[in-house]
Task: structure prediction
Amino acid sequence: MSKKGILVGTLVLLVGLMIGLWVVNAFERVEIDSPKRYSGEAKHNLYYAAKIFMREMGYDARTIDISNLKKSLPDQNDTLIITTNRQTLGKDLSDDILNWVASGGHLIIQPAEIYFDYEDKDEGETNQDPILNKIGITAFYNFSTDYNGFTDTCSTGIDPADDDATDDDATDDVTVTEAEAEAEFEFKAEAEADKWSDQPGIYTFTNDHDDVELYFPPNQSLAGKTVDDFTLSDTKDTPLIHREYQKGAITTLVDLEFLTNNEIGKFDHARALINIINLDYGSSSSRLKRNIWILHDENMPSILALIWTHAFPVVVISLLMLILWLSGSLFRFGPLIPQPETERRQFLEHIDASGKYFWKNNQKSKLVNSTRSALDKRVSQMIPGWGQLSKQEQKNKMATILDMPESTLNNLMDTDSDLHSQDFTRLIRQLDNARKRL
Result:
């Protein structure tokens, strides 16, 4: 290598080292925890972590879809957790579930959607629920803000809670519609709920000696408890009512979001789940021998999912047959089978077949006339002006050329074509020999 090449290589190496040192000093490698997305069943099952946790605790926890639930309810003494609002269950299935509870099942549910009802403030917002209505439990928003007093304030400008307010403080030009008052009340109620949005409640279960921290949405409460019910309550709301129903039990929680994948690991939510499951059995170990079913989606499975679930062997066999058919169609085993060549016939065979057809269909005259026409055409080619000659002159001329008696030529040109086979063959041969002699 020349000195110039060595110098250039050295300079390039020094520049590369300087850039490397600058990168090392200017940048710092920092490891951060990147949140992992859910995969598998956890992608579409918000309560997958709760199911796995119950299995680790010794319970036989499984999921169930709406189609299987309509087909067959769980066994007696099993636990059914319905995490949906049950809008599509219908009255018949709801009645069947209540009968299943009456025979010994344990049902854990949350209310259906809660609607604002400002017309009946004392009773709160009732929950239209086919199951809870039958056992006398309702769900409502329990706001400390007084709606009637709030609307009075909107219409007069005076807060009824203000003892120092006088009639002189009233404003005559305040006009607030009912819709505006409801919207303002909802805004203030939500602002009140935000104050408690991150604060868990402290509750005590009868089958647990220690208090548990459990988060429920603020300002949502259950009503309809009796002296025989087990409840979780604080100074303001009642988020849980457990009621015995004949041989079984129904546990109603104001919300089941604390059992989702994102929330079950917070506070004492996992511990509370075990306590809720065992409310109707206390600490009995026999509970571990029974199944726990979780209905987390009311939508019917797709047709493909149903086929895969109920016709799995048929699907597998069909796929194998399709693979075998494709492999046989795409790949050839052995050489191609040679295609036989199309058999070609000689032209004389076609003529012979045509003659037999005419003979068979009593059309001998066509064969004789065609042969006579061939002879006449041949003669016209040899003798100029043949067409201007009369028939008698043509016969005389042809008899001279062929060296044939005129009587014989007359037999060739005028004989009736309705002949026997031997006479017909003799006539055709004579005409053909005459044509060839020209």
